[in-house]
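Box 3.1. Reading complex inputs
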Amino acid sequence: MSYPRIVVLFGIAISIIFFAISTMLYSRSSLSDQNSSKLDTVGGHTPGYPILKTTGDILDPTSSVINPKNAVVDPMKYLREFNYGRVSTSSNGTVIRDFTLIASDQQTKEVSPGVFYNVWTFNGTIPGPTIRATEGDLIRITLINQGTKFHSIHFHGIHPSEMDGVFEGIAPGGRFTYQFTAEPFGVFLYHCHMQPLEEHITHGLYGVYIVDPKQGRPQADEMVMLMNGYDTDFDTENNFYTVNGIPFYYMHHPIQIEKNRLIRIYLVNMLEFDPLNNFHLHANLFNFYKTGTKLIPDEYTDIVTMNQAERGILEFSYKYPGMYMFHAHKTEFAEKGWTGLFFVKDNTSESVNQNLNVTSTMNNTSYSKSNFSNATNIVPTGGLK
Amino acid sequence: MMEREETNIANTYRISKRTILFGVVPIIVIGAMIILLLNSPGILFQNSVKPLPKISIEKVEFSDGGIVAFIRNTGPSNTTIAQADVNDRIHPAAIEPSRILTRLADAKVIIPFVWNIGEPYKIGITTDDGTRFEKTVDSAAPAPRPTVGQVSTFAIIGTYVGVIPVMMGLIWYPFIRRLSPNKYNFFLSLTAGLLVFLGIDALLESNEIAVNTLAPAFNAQILIIMVAIVSLITLLYVSQRLIQRASKRSKPEIEYKSGYSSHSEPDSELSDIRSSSTSSQQQLLIKPIAISMMIAIGIGLHNFGEGLAIGAAVLLGEVALSSFLILGFTLHNTTEGLAIVAPMAKSRRIPVTKLMIMGLIAGGPTIIGAWIGGFLYSPIATVIFLSIGAGAIFQVVYSIAAWMYHTNGSRGLLNNHWIIMGFAFGMLIMYLTGLLV
């Protein structure tokens, strides 16, 4: 056989390999063609900003909704969801509340639009469920560890040493029931206290724990807000800041409240890495009850600043209908997700629509009516159940 | 017996079907392995951790009402872009053509943003696993658009920096013609010094771009060395071929010193050429005018790279083009003209038009480079052109050294203090004028 024919054969062999590789690469790259042939707009949220049309994809965490299947939490559900446990009464008349928390550390969930993070959770969400009881109730919380590491629950409040969740970790597959009397009244938090502590907290093992005073608090539209952050690239600096788990969520799903109705927010700061965090309310002031352990307010203000694990109760009502922001007045946090909207409705539905139209055109916002209809209706919850 | 041995020998060089099999089998096996690995990564490496993504932000442009980041997936696998930010503050953005980037694929991230001229900006890109990649722009400036005004601005800059200095250097031609051999050697080695400096400068410059702008996936540093070496040996080959062909047609132009022919020849490459030719002396060396042309081409490539760098600097907002900077480049480049005229100063008179053409070959590419660098900046292209230029310059240095070695006869190169001084002085001039830039 002659030399040129060899060359031809080699050429064929090599070109077959290249063909194989290139078809495979192409079949992979065709993934990216799925979303094409549409024209989206971006940039219309801020007054004075150009609106851009694109044939590509939109990267807009301020208006895009996470698929509930992947989302680390449903912030609208979390906002007004208070868990009172399985209630029973002991022989001496004490109310017993039983809770079950399942710890896991293997899931990857969407914590900000498009960003997936290995979350460690109580009952599958960040923040974990809000646990609520009345002063003097007996609380029994069973922790089931379905994770791969030791976990525990450390509650703030008054309880015996062995119920503190610090020295005894629950092994993977194990379970333990924490049992203590709810005292004193106030707003508290719970979190995993295993080492390395920062790692267990920043991955998401925390939640809010509320103890109501025996005499109750005035009737109000109550909600819980937990401020946190996510360090998704592990450089001990947060990449995202949120209230109730997902950045910018209440920007595209404003919290609907009623004009002149008393609003009560149980506010907890669980932010890791940054030494402070704060809450600022627009066009209004609120009564602030530090740690919620007194029934008289400590301050009448429009901003409260908290270190990690600090918390309190905010009470206010809106005088005028319309759209109002609330956000961290550490503006870096606000621009990385810790920002939201109250949509104050007048009692009549017509004026609501009018107000909505006015605010939409004035701010040049792109909120559609469907966004509002998605928002959960107000479920008025009394101070006590 | 004899016959069999002959057929055996013939068989050694003939390729049978079995031999082909041995040649093709490894390629087929490799192909099968590639198909297997690409199609079933889950089966083979079930426990392996997902490789870390890597996004390179290659270029950031500031336009009317927005910032555009040109990004490339330089990681080992496909990556999805999640979010974009300006100064570490999240902003809505668009990504074209798609947020899913295959390996080495690129995309354009457009962030509507009202930016301020002259302020530094950090552009960040976050991938779907939450990793953030950042690029700092020292000073925001509107991206040059290929308008008539901008095109002519770059042309004027290129003329100032490239064409005028080289032409000024060419004016030294009559002066160098009248120098004594020692002083002439001084200027020739001065030229070599200038060129060595330029070559090192080009390598360092391309290394800087490779390290700062290009992703490690391109292996750009090894690319620089590779391109420089290939360009050096290719040009050596081309120049040797040119001389061989030229010497067949023309008579030698140079009268060598009488002592030269008795001088022993240590360079095997050169002796090879000598043995293959009829007249030993004519074909030994590149003719001076050829050296000059080579220098002009080499410097042209260098200036092309310099133009790219200037245009890119304007585009990237890294530099505000001041008249001082242009003055610095002008002084720096004047010596390049000297480098062109020195080798041919002692040969027969060169017509002015030929000089002018050489000047244009050396200086003109600055303008083209500035256009390309300013309007379509590509770091990888800049690195490649600078490396080619470096290779070309070292080839010229070799030619000058060989030329001086032979014209100096028995004295050699390193015995002549004029040559040593000239070489050192050449590099010093470049260093000092380089301080102005």
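In summary: Chain B touches chain A through 53 residues (CB under 8 Å).
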